[in-house]
Design brief:
mainly alpha, 4 helices
Length: about 180
């Protein structure tokens, strides 16, 4: 509720706009996905510490990748993949909404020549300008969602690399 109140206070001129609820939804989804990605990145740090990937003094006996660690990493990768897919689905829906907004704005602009009253023209121009603001913001959110999806892929790849590193047999060089 606080976020919604903040959004409404920050842009009171769009309170009566028909796309307001879609805009609020987009902002809340963006924030939620960002929080989840940050949480997964913190969880990744914890997993990497527990895998002891960054320790140089790890003995071969502590490099074992047991069932519990395997279960944790598999679950983590699954959760990160689901988060990436969710961000992608949200982005797809926002892109659909943008296309709809653009069609509505063009439809309103097409009415302009038939409008006789200056007030009506100004109202249509105002509506189109505010709709363009929504379109621009949705574009920014889509870009951020792309970034979140990339961060999810990186987290999954980093954990996969760490797991492979920990599970790899020790190298035995000739002459050592």
């Amino acid at each position: 509720m606080e976020k919604i109140q903040h959004l409404l206070k920050a842009s009171p001129e769009v309170r009566a706009h028909p796309f307001l609820m879609a805009g609020v939804f987009a902002e809340l989804q963006r924030d939620r996905v960002e929080d989840l990605v940050r949480s997964k990145e913190s969880e990744l740090d914890y997993l990497l510490i527990n895998l002891q990937v960054y320790r140089v003094d790890v003995s071969p006996g502590t490099r074992e990748f047991g069932w519990t660690k395997n279960q944790h990493t598999s679950l983590f990768r699954s959760e990160v993949k689901n988060l990436e897919e969710e961000a992608s689905a949200i982005k797809d829906e926002l892109e659909k909404m943008v296309r709809h907004m653009e069609r509505v704005a063009k439809s309103e602009e097409a009415r302009m020549p038939a409008l006789v009253q200056q007030e009506e023209r100004e109202a249509v121009q105002d509506f189109v300008a505010k709709t363009e603001r929504f379109v621009a913001r949705f574009g920014e959110i889509c870009t951020e969602l792309n970034s979140f999806m990339g961060r999810c892929r990186m987290a999954s790849e980093e954990l996969t690399f760490a797991r492979e590193l920990v599970s790899a047999p020790e190298f035995h060089w000739a002459g050592r």
